[in-house]
Structures are given as structure tokens and as C-alpha cells.
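Every protein is a chain of amino acids, and every chain bends into a shape of its own. Below is the pair of lines this work produces for a single protein:
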Amino acid sequence: MSDINLVAPSLLSCDFAHLAEEIKAVEDAGADWLHVDIMDGHFVDNLTIGPPVVASIKKASKIPLDVHLMIENPEKYIAEFVKVGSDRVTIHVESTKDVRGALKKIRELGAKPGITLRPKTSLDEVQEFFSLVDLVLIMTVNPGFGGQSFMPEQMEKVRHVKAWSQKNNSKLFIEVDGGVNSKTVGVCREAGANVFVAGNAIFKSGNYQQAIKSLK
């Protein structure tokens, strides 16, 4: 797994007036997944999209949808997000009183579950769930808004997850999201990450293919 480097453009940074064209452009440029941020204005301050838009993204996409739920009580909405085409569904440990139940529900419905660490989330809060998920997402900015600066201190968490994965012979995807670009991706890869979410670094680059290639 360590030799896999996947790039997941964050659609939050794309031009939503030309959503289908943007999706095709990053797919043609070599994107592996599409990262879709769902925010409810409660768990994080920002408010983004819901299941109807995810359904439209799915219709336009040929690659997996990596859906990141930054919402309270995600168990209420998991079925709907899976129904409209979410291939991966990642939740925050702080967002629900029944983390295990929510992760189990994601898998039972046919999607692949993930767990997220915000910068202030300790490893002690999430490690018990590593065996239940396919993906661990380490946020390298505070979730809610794009364009923030990369937090290199979060690489210690990446190294810890990588060590756990190796020790337990696990094939976890270790994803980083926030301030990832051609200058910061190297330290992420060195620490053990193998999936890189990038928004502005791709959609504001002027050359999607070159931007994705530089991340890989």
C-alpha cells in the first residue's frame, strides 16, 4: 500500500457553474478519486452541499466518490449519501455518540467507511476504530474552509497510523487533506500517507494535469 499514491481533487474548490466539465477535466488529468466535502453549518461553520448534488456528481463521474461528512449525527444521513453514489464515507469521531454503529452502517450499505482526525483530535480518541475502517483521514488544516495553511505537526499522526497499519498487517488508506500541494506533499508521503486531497493546488493551478502529476 505504501507505494500507492492516489490524488483526490477536492470539488469544494472547483467551479460549480461548470461542475460536469470540471469533473471530466480532473478525471482526464489523472485524478483517482473525487473528494466531496459535506458540511452542515453546525459541526463546522461552513455550509456546502447535500445528497442531490452528490447524485449529480456521481452521474458525471467515472471514478470513486470519497465523501467526507463534516456533519452532526451522520448516521441519520449515511443511507441517503450511499444511495446517491458515495463509494467511501468518512465520519468524524466527535460527530456521533455511536461511532461503531455509524461505521458498521456504512459498510452494511455497501460503501467503505473511514474515520477522521481533526487537528485537535487525539489518536487515543480514534485508534480503537482503525480495525473497522478502510481509510483514516488526517486533517492538516481545521475543517470548514479551503485555502488554509498546511500544519506539518499533524505528520506525527500520519506516522502513528502508518505504524499501526504495518503492525496489524492492515491495508489502510492514509489520507491527508488541507494545504496539500507540490511543496507539502513530500512530507506527507514520507510520513506514510498514500491518498492526497488537494483543492486550490489543482483547481487554481491553470493546468490540472501538471498539478496532479506533481502530487503523484
In short: The longest helix spans residues 155-167. The radius of gyration is 16 Å. Strands lie at 6-9, 34-39, 65-70, 88-92, 112-117, 135-139, 173-177, 195-198.
